[in-house]
Amino acid sequence: MRRTAAIVVALAVLAAMAALGAVSSSAAPGKAHATTLTVWVGWSARELSEFKKVTAEYDAKSPNVSVNVVGGINDDKIIAALRSGNAPDVVSSFTSSNVGIYCSSGGWIDLAPYLKKDGISTSIFPAATMYYTQFKGTRCALPLLADVYGFYYNKALFKKAGLTAPPKTFAELTAYAKKLTIRKGDGSLDVVGFDPVFGFYQNGIGGYQPLVGAKYFDPSGKSAISRDPGWKTLLNWQRGLIDYYGYDKLVKWQTGAGDEFSASHAFERGKLAMMMDGEWRVAFLAAEHPELKYGTAPMPVGLRSQYGSGYINGSWSST
Q1: Ordered alpha helix ranges (H), the chain
Q2: Residue 97 in 3-state DSSP?
Q3: How remote is the C-alpha of 188 from its chain's centroid?
Q4: Nearest to 315 by CA among 150, 96, 131
Q5: Distance from the CA of 259 to the CA of which of 79, 191, 202, 277 falls in 20 to 30 A?
């Protein structure tokens, strides 16, 4: 999840700053020594510059506070900073599944007392986002962004392959991917129809799990991964498509696919015909490749009756 929504970002960051107690309404403006707050975020490049515009607005209105934004942060860096005892004032994470670790370990402070003190009601946030920003009643984070994942496809490549509408099932996705894939004379991959490898761009277990209706746990609370048929459907489909390309050839193609958050992105250059991605890609395409003709739709699913389901998640911030 990687995009900037200025109003929501400003609200969440300022709330976190207020929780620190670093901002005082009674502080005299123009003091010689301003309070500096270090904020870690995951964004880079153009998204980072957009985020910095938001904090610059806050700086302009708060001369007694200076915000230092550090981009390109992931959860490995956050955890390392907590363990070293040298964590920043405010952090943002894209991995909502780690909230339980941060809350239960005390790595991130309980914000509830500070929210109450400053009169900030959590009712201003959507209920769904409040669920994944707390753990067992401990409110150690606040919602920052909400993201939804969907299916992107290259209209020009579809037309060339004689395809008129996006696929709705995994079986159709595989058939489309084969029609859209272009190999070079030596057999290596030039254009890939759809890359199913976990870890490539936004491909992850979390994004695919709803598409097959798979369950992580059974009603008794025990792991259902080895028994739930949804996981078998997902992994068999993934393995079949990878085998079609040839794993080694697909990995080699990925080395030249381009950085996910740059204008060299494979889909943006017409080297990837279809993909799963978040809503932020629309802004990237408009800014970097406005000439690209593309369409969006729900992700294909394991069973046609599940079509329209998908992955919704968000990022969050804490102190």
Answers
A1: 6-20, 45-61, 75-84, 99-105, 112-117, 127-131, 155-160, 170-180, 205-212, 229-245, 247-254, 281-288
A2: helix
A3: 30
A4: 96
A5: 79
Residue finishing a domain among 98, 122, 140: 140
* Coil, strand or helix at 138: strand
Q: Each residue of 90-123: pLDDT tens digit? A: 998 888 888 888 888 888 899 999 999 999 998 8
* Per-chain mean pLDDT for the chain: 87
Scored b (16 or more CB within 10 A) or e, 123-137 reads eebeeebeebbbbee
Q: Is 59 part of a structural domain of the chain?
A: yes
Whether 287 has a pLDDT exceeding 80, the answer reads: yes
Pair 131, 153 in one domain: no
> Does residue 261 surpass a pLDDT of 60?
yes
In a shared domain, residues 97 and 230: no
Asked if residue 230 belongs to a domain, the reply is: yes
Determine the structural domain holding residue 156 and report its residue range. 148-311
Contact 296, 150 (CB under 8 A): yes
Contact status, residue 294 vs residue 154, Cβ threshold 8 Å = yes
Q: Confirm if 104 and 136 have CB atoms less than 8 A apart.
A: yes
What is the four-CA torsion angle of 245, 249, 251, 256, rounded to 10 degrees? Answer: -110
